[in-house]
Each structure stands twice: as C-alpha cells, then as structure tokens.
C-alpha cells in the first residue's frame, strides 16, 4: 500500500502549507488544513488498498475532501452529519462566496472567518490530493513540486513582503525528503540491492553500491536549498531587511540607503477601513480648545496618471530631527494660527508604521529613536524604527484662515510649489478639465473654486460613500467615478478633488492619515482603524497648505470626518467685494512666518532635484562601523583566507609527520637546513620513505595548485621529465625535481630508500619555479585559493553526506521480523 511514501507525501504537503501563513491574521487555519491533508492521505490509501483504477484514485480523493469539509463546516445540513445534501452544498457555496468577498475586500493578512478558512482548507486539501496522486500512484515525485510551489507563489503574488526563509526551508526539506523516499522505493522495486563494504574495517557497514549516485543527489539538493536560502540575503534589493537582517527597517532600508521606500499608503488605507475588528490604532491628548485637527502621515504629491504617491525621499534632502525642531511650514505668513500640543501613544500591536501621525503643520516633536523629516512635506519617518508602542509629543500650529483671506490670496505661488504640485500627466483626458471648469464657472477666485468643488462632492447629492468600491488603479477609474458611478470612499474623493484643483491652477496634493477620532470620557481621543482617511490639501499663499473635505461624513460617509469652517460656502454678506484685498493679520505664533522651506536657494523651476528624479548622494554616516558590519567583514575575510591558511597548515603537517624539524631559513640543496628528530643520527628506512612520499605529495599538490597537468599513470621519473620539458625549468629547479622523483622511485621500488636530506628545500625550490612559469593570475590563484585546499572541504562534505546517507538508509530499512 506504499504506506511510507504516502506518509512522506503528506508530511511534504504539511511543511509546504506553512508558506501560507502571510495570508491570514490568525493561525487557526492550521488545524483544518492538517485534517484535510490526513483525509487526502487516507483516501489515497483506501483507493490503492482496493486496487481501484488510476482515474478513480484522484476522484476518491476529491470525494473524500468534499466529505471532510461537509463534516467540518456544514454538518447540520448534511445527512447523518457527513453525507452532502443540497442544503449542505448550498451552505458550502455561501461560505465560499463570503470568503471570496473578504479576500477581495481586504489586503493580506485577511481576517480568518469561516469562509476564508474554508477556502484555505480546500486549497490545502486539493494540493494534498494532487501530491499524493502524483507521488504514490503515478510515481512522479519531481512533478509534485509544482503544486507544492503553488502554496508559496500565492503569498508572493498578493504581498510585497517575501515568505520567511524558515518557511521556505521547511518546505524544501519536505520536498527533498519526498524525492529521497521516492528514489528509495524505485531502487527497492528492483529487488534486493547489491551491497559493498565501504566503511572502515574495524566497524564495517553494508551500503548500497549506488551510494555515489545518491551522494551526488544529496549534494545537488543541499546546494540548491542553500543557494535559494542564502542568495536573497546577500543580493541588494531582494531581502527586505538587507543582508542577515542588518539593513535597518524593512521598509526604508538602512541608514545608508539611497531611497526610502514603503508600502503603498493608499493600499494600507483600504485595508484599515475594511477591517472588521476596528482595532484601536492610537490614543492622544491635546490642549486644543476645539475639535482636534486630523493626524497626517503622508503627503502624496505625485500623480502619475494612475495613482497618487509621494516623491521618493532621498538621503541628502531629508534631515535627522535635531533637538526636535522642525522646518517652518511652506507659505504660512499671514493666516492666524493657534499653538497646540498633542501627546500621542501608538498601540503596541501596530506593525510597520514608519511614518508618525501628527497634526499639520508640526513645529517641534519629542520622540525617541532615529526619526527624520522631509523639509518640503514635513512628513516624519524613520529608516530603522517603527512607531508601534511609542509615545511622543508634538507641538503644532492650528491654522485658522478666514474666508476673506483665502479669497484674496495671491494666485502666484512660488516656483517650487507650482512645478511640483500643478503637474498633470498627459493621459488625463481634457474632459476632466472641462468638468472642473463647469462646476466652478461661477466662482471668481481660486479659493471659491475649491469651495465649489468641495460642495459638489458633499452637497449636490450626486455622490455616494461606498467602501466596497475597488481602489482606483488607472485614470479611467477616476474619470468613471467623476462622470458615471459617483460611488467610492475617501481615496476616490480626495484623489479626484486634488486632480480637479490642479486643472484649475490650484496647487494640490493628497494627504493621508487619520481623522480626529472620538473623545473618551476621560478627555482623551481614541483613533481606530476605520478612522483612517485621505483628504486633499490645497495651497494658498499666506495660509500655506490647508485641508479640504470632499468626502461625505456622518452615518452616510466617513463617520468621524469633519469639514473645516473656512471651506464652507460663504454667505453673501461675508463675501468680499470685487477687487477688495484683505489686510494681512500677523501670525499668533512665532516662527510661523518665513519663506517656504521647500524652496532650494538658487534653484530653478526646472531643477531636477525638485522633480525628485535626480540621484542624490547618500547620506554620510558610519553605518559600516557598526559592530554587525564589522563582524560580517571579519567573517568574509576569514572565509577568503581559509583556503590559503588550510594549504599552509597541510604543508607543515605533512613535513612534520615525515620527521622534519623546522627549516632554518631558505637553504639551498646540499646545505644542512633539515635535521632528523633529536636523538637520531640518521633517518631510518621508514622515515626516509615518509620523507620521499611527503615530497612527492607536495609536488603533486603544487602542480594541481598551479594548474599543471598531472598524470597518475606516469612513473615519478617520467613525470619529472615531462614537467621539466613543459615548463623549461632552469638547471637548479630541474635538479631539485629530479631528486624528488628519484627519492619517490626508491621509496616505491628499492629495498632501501634513498636518504635525501634536501627534499624539503627541493620542494620549495620547485614550487617557486612553478610560480615563475605560469601566468600572474594562476600564480595568485595558487596562493590565495589553492585548489588542493578545496579538496579537504570536499572530503569533509563527502563524509558528512555519507553520514546522512547512512542515517537515511537505517531509517528507511524495514524492521526485522522476530521469530
């Protein structure tokens, strides 16, 4: 019944299923998945026990899988709790439909409800059925790697983060065990194997004669796994945390990284809004007298025609926070401001938050860790730390411009603002511009046009807040939202208003973070995952970047969203007279005035640095002086020196075993540079043979290291004559080579070996002659990476693989029957 092969196939499937862990936010899927694998194995055993036809084998597995999920998920509707009925099948179909909707609604990891769990169980079960069918019934173990690989490809396709190397290694071990078990079954199918004694005479062990082929398979398999596990850790850009996890923060790289990268903020926004648990993200206390302002994390300034994102933050234009003081906000000169202090605590369960949420514009921040600020957007982020579990304090300004001030603000923004925040890709159709002009035709100023756009989204009744809509992926999706469907959530509203504002000449960007949340009874504010939000920020000279709110709020929209007072439509009495100008009001907070910090002194509008496309130099720092990198460099140096060191040690050990003491200087042949051990006047015959063998072995080693041809079927004299002619050795080196060959011949064939005192000096002389006769590349290769030293590594690896082979053979050998 192939019980052992069935068990190994099931074990390989279970180990590979570990690769599905990134898809779920809970580990409860493991138990039903384990049961599905056992059910598939049992079905295969029964089908083979009754010798059913091959096609029936896989059908039996599928039927067993249906019975299993019926028992686990819809037993109440099934006959006797196990036999499927129309009602139970309908229940399974509803669960699958529910799981499919959740999978499309959430980004991984998804909440593990019954529907999602059923999808995972069926997936694991179907892979188990297919693997059992391929391995046990069709005897195609190698082909079973494809369904096993599918359980790794699914997480890799839906997530930016790769599967843990530990999970991959477990799956690779399972697949290798599957191949070994199948090869053992294939060999045993031919009958009793032929054995040969290949272990020591003192403790002989019987091993199959095909062990060399098996050892080759082990080497290939172990080498492939080692390369697959280790290679991504040393190639820049593949492993998210750098080599051996020392690359700093997984998102941002290390302190020496040239570009800060994070997951798409809008992707995480949709995931937060759709979370069913609505978990608490942060709590904060503030001294604001009115409802607190939003907590901003990202400022998305680039629209590429499909998506909004931010200009890559590059070292050299981002500044470490020194003493907590932040650059002044851009364009803020005459709008009234109110200083606000906010103390924020991020929940410990929050993961991968590398941008700090805070009111805009921040003036000063007190936070532990290595945090940096982008002076143009005032986004605060870290290259190596995360916000989860941290508490920090932020001093910010609450900007309170009046409608009159915004209406009379200058239409001319600084060059760096217009270049960066008025860019519109060519693929945006002209119909978008005409739509913006139609909706704001009656508005005389840019501010009133912005208010008209906001009112169109929130007061016209044409738009509906709908969280089930997919995130826009192309400009056509935004056009469809604006002209046809008019259904979406905050991402569509914010992205559309920012784009429309740009077509009207208003600098705009999309901000993302959290709304103010809800106030607790103790006066603190609680922000949950569903308070995640996106909104447009529009630039008006004198007031800087001000928030607008086009997303419907309350029960029909984003529950905690709020419309700023200055963005409400002005009444006729409050509207400024045509041509009137507002008197600038000095800021109530010191430090609010000043030129735009985003402007680079002397920069031109076409400066490539402003477009974020120039490669700026990496930030100077001492990352290479960290203990971890020093240890890595030291390890690399030791590894590089290992072959040379091993070759030297082998040479010294070889001469010491031959009875030589230390060589006194660089003696030439005929000089008394080598002495026998103390207490002996003359070397005994055996010692002379050992010396001759050591010199000959060293000659062979030196020839191999210098890539010289060595023929094992030649006599020592023929070898020395061929090498001398091939290399055109001088008389001194040729004489030394002849003495070594003569000593080896006498040691092999003569009753009394030759006593040549200068063999060690002759060996050194020949080695130097070899080095002079080859190219410089071969010479240095022989010194630094001598091939003879690698023979020892291969021999040690071979012994280790022999031990593994012995262990596998013993474990796979059927137990002997007693009696």
Write a structural description.
The chain has 819 residues and is α+β, with helices and mostly antiparallel strands. Among the domains are: 3-191, no CATH class; 279-301 and 310-400, no CATH class; 631-785, no CATH class. Helices cover 44% and strands 11% of the residues. It contains 22 helices and 21 strands. Strands 11-14-10-4-19-18 form a six-stranded antiparallel beta sheet, with no helix packed on it. Strand 12 and strand 13 form a beta hairpin. The longest helix has 31 residues, at 627-657. The radius of gyration is 38 Å and the shape is flat. The relative contact order is 0.07. Mean pLDDT is 76; it is low at 196-211, 233-262, 572-625 and 662-682.
Strand order of the largest sheet: 11-14-10-4-19-18
Number of strands: 21
What is the beta-strand fraction? 5-15%
Overall pLDDT score = 76
**CA radius of gyration:** 38 Å
**What share of residues is helical?**
40-55%
Determine the structural class based on helices, strands and strand pairing.
alpha+beta
Taking the sheet with the most strands, its summary is: 6 strands, antiparallel
Number of helices: 22
List the uncertain runs: 196-211, 233-262, 572-625, 662-682
In whole angstroms, how far apart are the ends?
A: 24 Å
> Overall 3D geometry?
flat
Protein name: Transglutaminase domain-containing protein
Pfam family, one: Transglut_core
Keywords: Membrane, Transmembrane, Transmembrane helix
Organism: Actinomadura alba
């Amino acid at each position: 019944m192939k019980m052992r092969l069935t068990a190994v196939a099931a074990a390989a499937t279970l180990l590979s299923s570990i690769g599905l862990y990134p898809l779920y936010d809970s580990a409860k899927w493991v138990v039903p998945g384990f049961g599905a694998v056992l059910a598939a194995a049992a079905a295969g055993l029964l089908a083979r026990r009754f010798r059913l036809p091959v096609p029936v084998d896989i059908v039996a597995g599928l039927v067993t899988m249906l019975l299993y999920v019926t028992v686990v998920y819809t037993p109440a509707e099934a006959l006797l709790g196990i036999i499927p009925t129309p009602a139970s099948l309908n229940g399974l179909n509803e669960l699958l439909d529910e799981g499919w909707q959740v999978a499309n609604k959430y980004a991984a990891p998804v909440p593990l409800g019954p529907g999602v769990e059923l999808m995972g169980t069926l997936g694991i079960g179907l892979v188990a059925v297919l693997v059992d069918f391929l391995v046990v019934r069709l005897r195609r173990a190698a082909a079973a790697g494809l369904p096993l690989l599918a359980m790794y490809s699914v997480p890799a396709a839906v997530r930016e983060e790769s599967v843990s190397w530990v999970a991959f290694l477990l799956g690779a071990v399972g697949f290798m065990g599957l191949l070994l078990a199948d090869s053992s079954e294939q060999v045993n199918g031919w009958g009793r194997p032929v054995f040969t004694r290949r272990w020591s005479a003192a403790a002989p062990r019987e091993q199959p004669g095909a062990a060399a082929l098996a050892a080759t398979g082990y080497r290939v398999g172990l080498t492939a796994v080692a390369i697959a596990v280790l290679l991504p850790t040393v190639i820049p850009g593949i492993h998210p945390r750098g080599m051996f996890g020392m690359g700093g923060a997984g998102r941002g790289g290390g302190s020496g990284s040239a570009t800060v990268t994070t997951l798409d903020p809008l992707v995480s926004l949709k995931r937060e809004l759709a979370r069913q648990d609505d978990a608490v993200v942060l709590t904060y206390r503030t001294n604001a007298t009115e409802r607190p302002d939003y907590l901003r994390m990202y400022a998305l300034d680039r629209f590429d025609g499909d998506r909004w994102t931010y200009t890559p933050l590059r070292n050299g234009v981002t500044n470490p926070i020194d003493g907590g003081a932040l650059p002044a906000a851009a364009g803020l000169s005459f709008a009234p401001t109110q200083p606000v202090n906010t103390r924020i605590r991020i929940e410990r369960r929050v993961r991968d938050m590398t941008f700090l949420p805070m009111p805009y514009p921040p003036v000063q921040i007190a936070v532990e860790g290595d945090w940096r600020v982008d002076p143009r957007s005032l986004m605060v982020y870290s290259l190596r730390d995360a916000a989860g579990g941290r508490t920090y304090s932020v001093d910010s300004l609450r900007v309170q411009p009046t409608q009159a001030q915004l209406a009379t603000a200058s239409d001319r923004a600084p060059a760096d603002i217009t270049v960066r925040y008025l860019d519109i890709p060519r693929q945006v159709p002209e119909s978008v511009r005409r739509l913006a002009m139609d909706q704001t035709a009656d508005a005389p100023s840019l501010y009133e046009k912005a208010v008209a756009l906001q009112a169109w989204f929130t007061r016209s009744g044409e738009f509906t807040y709908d969280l089930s809509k997919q995130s826009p992926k192309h400009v056509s999706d935004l056009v469809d939202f604006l002209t046809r469907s008019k259904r979406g959530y905050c991402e569509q509203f914010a992205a559309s208003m920012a784009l429309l504002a740009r077509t009207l000449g208003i600098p705009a960007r999309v901000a993302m973070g959290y709304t103010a949340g809800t106030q607790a009874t103790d006066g603190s504010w609680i922000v949950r995952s569903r308070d995640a939000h996106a909104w447009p920020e529009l630039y008006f000279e004198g007031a800087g970047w001000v928030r607008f709110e086009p997303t419907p709020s309350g029960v029909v929209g984003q529950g905690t969203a709020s419309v700023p007072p200055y963005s409400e439509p002005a009444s006729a009495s409050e509207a400024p007279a045509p041509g009137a100008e507002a008197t600038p009001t000095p800021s109530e907070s010191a430090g609010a005035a000043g030129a735009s910090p985003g402007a680079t002194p002397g920069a031109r509008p076409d400066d490539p640095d402003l477009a974020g496309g120039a490669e700026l130099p990496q930030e100077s720092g001492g990352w290479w002086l960290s203990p971890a990198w020093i240890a890595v460099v030291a390890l690399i140096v030791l590894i590089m020196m290992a072959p040379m060191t091993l070759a030297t040690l082998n040479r010294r050990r070889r001469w010491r075993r031959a009875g030589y003491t230390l060589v006194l200087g660089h003696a030439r042949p005929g000089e008394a540079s080598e002495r026998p051990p103390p207490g002996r006047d003359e070397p005994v015959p055996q010692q002379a043979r050992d010396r001759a063998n050591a010199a000959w072995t060293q000659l062979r080693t030196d020839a191999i290291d210098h890539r010289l041809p060595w023929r094992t079927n030649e006599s020592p004299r023929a070898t020395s004559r061929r090498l001398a002619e091939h290399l055109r050795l001088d008389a001194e080196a040729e004489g030394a080579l002849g003495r070594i060959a003569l000593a080896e011949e006498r040691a092999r064939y003569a009753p009394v070996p030759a006593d040549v005192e200068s063999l060690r000096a002759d060996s050194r002389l020949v080695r130097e002659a070899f080095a002079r006769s080859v190219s410089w590349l071969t010479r240095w290769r022989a010194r630094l990476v001598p091939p003879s030293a690698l023979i020892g590594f291969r021999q040690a690896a071979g012994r280790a693989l022999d031990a593994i082979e012995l262990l596998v053979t013993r474990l796979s050998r059927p137990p002997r029957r007693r009696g």
